[in-house]
Structure formats: C-alpha cells, structure tokens
Amino acid sequence: MEHDNDQPGISSRWVALGGGVLAIAIIGGGWVALTGNGSSTKTSAPTTTVTVAPGSSSPGAGTSTGTASSASTPAARTGCGFPAAWDATPASSAPQVTWQQVGGLSAPTSPQLGPGKVSGPDGAIRQCYQHSPTGAVMAAANIAIGASDPLAGNEVVEKQFTPGPGKQQVLDQQGEEGTATIAGFQVEACEPAKCLISIAVSGGGNYGAATVPLVWSGGDWMVDGTVTGISAGQPLSSLAGYVPFSPGLAS
C-alpha cells in the first residue's frame, strides 16, 4: 500500500503517528482503553458497553450489557431524511463514496450514508448520517476529520459530541496537526443505540487504530461525550482485519 506522507493528517486531538507510536487524545474510560505497547486492554462500564452477540455472523449485530439509551425503534429514530436501514450489515468492502477536501484532508461522503448536512469553515461540520452500522462508520471518519480542522475543530466538538466531561476534556486540549490519514475501518460492535467504530490510520510508514464511541442522539450519530480519560493508541503491524478505506482506493 502506498503512503502519502506529505498529506496533512488527523490532529493530535485525535491521533498522531510518529516513531511507531500512536497517541489518541480523546478515547478512553468506560468504552475502550488501548495501551501503547502493542497490546489492547478494554474496560467496561456496565450501562454503556456494547457487546457483539456470540455466534453472530454480522459485525453490526449486537446486544447491550446495559441499559439502552432509547426505547424507540430504529425507524422512528432515523434522522436527516435517510431511510431506516438498521438491518443493513456493515460492508465487507469499502462503501462507494466520494472524497471531499476538508482543509488539507479528504473526508468520505455518500448520498445514501451521509453526511447530509455540511457547514462551517472548510466544510468541516459534517452532520446527518444513516442510522446503520455503515452510517456510523461514515460518522466516525468524518467527525475525526472535522475535529482536526484548525478553523472549525472546536465547533465540531461542540455540535457533534453529546454533553459530558469527556467533551469538555477534548475542548480543553490543544490540537496539533498530525501526519496520520484514514486507512481503514472495523465495526467492533454496534446496536441501534450505540456503536464502537475502530478507524485505522497510516502515517510515516506506520499503522495505528483509534476506537470511536458513538451514540444515536437527536436523530444522528454523535461521539459519546460522557467518555473521559486519555488513552494511548494501539499500534498495528498491518491492516489485517480492517476494511481498506482511503482516498487512494478506487470507488
């Protein structure tokens, strides 16, 4: 796989790759904590953790070990005009998307998956996604890119994180431009109320992964702002297990 090391990457507010070490500045707490020594340690909060049902053939099918945040049906909670599509399983290959420039980065967009609303400086505020596991993938990728934008990053966090101490922690952090670019995704677990999406990144010839906790709130996918704590990243030796997803791939 060819790496474009000259392209600006996701800011250190999200991920920064250098010397083989991935640093993630916002994900941790009850959802996922990843060590930086090549191993992975996951801790669970009983009321928020999503677990994939044993024996399920679909990465997007899951059950919750805690209390769901909403009792409404997927169809009733579909926002932004997208049709209900919860039965759709995550793609085993990259969805067909168009990559748009957001500052110095490229962000994926699809008329079927989202974002359905783009605003703000550099078009960095990218909202409204299909209520499906693949819609969650699109949200995770776009919010990470938008939060990296030097002009609109804080506004992205304000609008696309749910309230909570984790949201304030991110706003208090100083984001610095990094060198990592999106390279792939993995749906770790997903149900109508919440999803864990792992975004693989590449930079400087290295790979790493950041797990983004999403919740379905107000008719859209948002980052769970109740998540607190700073975790280190998970270095990856390869993209094995990830669906390749980057601007360099043919749609």
Automatic annotation (TrEMBL):
<keyword id="KW-0812">Transmembrane</keyword>
<keyword id="KW-0472">Membrane</keyword>
<keyword id="KW-1133">Transmembrane helix</keyword>
<dbReference type="Pfam" id="PF26526">
    <property type="entry name" value="DUF8175"/>
</dbReference>
<protein>
    <recommendedName>
        <fullName>DUF8175 domain-containing protein</fullName>
    </recommendedName>
</protein>
<feature type="region of interest" description="Disordered">
    <location>
        <begin position="40"/>
        <end position="120"/>
    </location>
</feature>
<feature type="compositionally biased region" description="Low complexity">
    <location>
        <begin position="40"/>
        <end position="76"/>
    </location>
</feature>
<feature type="compositionally biased region" description="Polar residues">
    <location>
        <begin position="90"/>
        <end position="112"/>
    </location>
</feature>
<feature type="transmembrane region" description="Helical">
    <location>
        <begin position="14"/>
        <end position="34"/>
    </location>
</feature>
<feature type="domain" description="DUF8175">
    <location>
        <begin position="67"/>
        <end position="244"/>
    </location>
</feature>
<dbReference type="InterPro" id="IPR058488">
    <property type="entry name" value="DUF8175"/>
</dbReference>
